[in-house]
Amino acid sequence: MITIHSPADERTVRNLELGQVVHIDGTIITGRDEMHMRALSSKNVPKELNFATLFHCGPIMIRDGKEWKAIAAGPTTSARMDTMEAEMIERFKIRIIIGKGGMSDDVLKAMKDNGCVYLAAIGGAAVSLAECLRCTGIEWEELGMAEAMWKFTAKQFGPLVVAMDAHGNSLYKNVGSKVNRTIKDHS
Question: Angle, to 10 degrees, between the axis of helix 105-114 and the axis of helix 82-92?
Fold first, then answer.
């Protein structure tokens, strides 16, 4: 198992291969639809967006004294951000995206062109994933808990599977091809 330190550099990301299992230590930010729209329409964005590890997640947070604490942080369906993600990768040089379900061919191309990988998180493990996160801040709180950009420091966040790499390979496409071949062979 590999531990990646975030923010990750391009060389580290390009060395990852499909199917590898990794954990993340370091900075992770969250972002769903509204955060993507805000980032792409704003001139001034939080510095943490640059070279980010971006987790498609709307965490459930509680205040613990003066601090925020994640009590659940499961992945959301990444395809919801398909129309915006290629531009996010290009503009902010995002290095790692964490989510579930994979993303489009346009996003895969942007990942290859810019040095970014997609790590699949396990759905249903929201409480376990939250235990690996310490909240360090929030941006755009007015978007609401699920849509704001939460900033975390992660320790052994995962396990995560390299499902789309920085060379244009995708486990999702591989599975789709196998299914199509199997259907064709049985027709």
Answer: 10
Domains and CATH numbers, the chain: 2-185 (3.20.130.10)
From residue 129, how far is each of 21, 76, 77, 122 by CA, in Å?
A: 15, 13, 16, 9
CA distance readout (Å), 45 to 50, 113, 148, 182: 9, 23, 13, 47
Quick: pLDDT tens for 109-152: 999 999 999 999 988 889 999 999 999 999 999 999 999 999 99
- Rounded Cα distance, 163 and 167, in Å: 12
Query: Catalytic one among 5, 36, 56, 167?
Result: 36
Q: Tell me the residue length of the chain.
A: 187
Tell me whether residue 36 is one of the annotated catalytic residues.
yes
Q: pTM, whole model, 2 decimals?
A: 0.92
| E strand or H helix that includes residue 133 | strand 133-139
Return the number of other C-beta atoms located less than 10 Å from residue 106's C-beta: 13
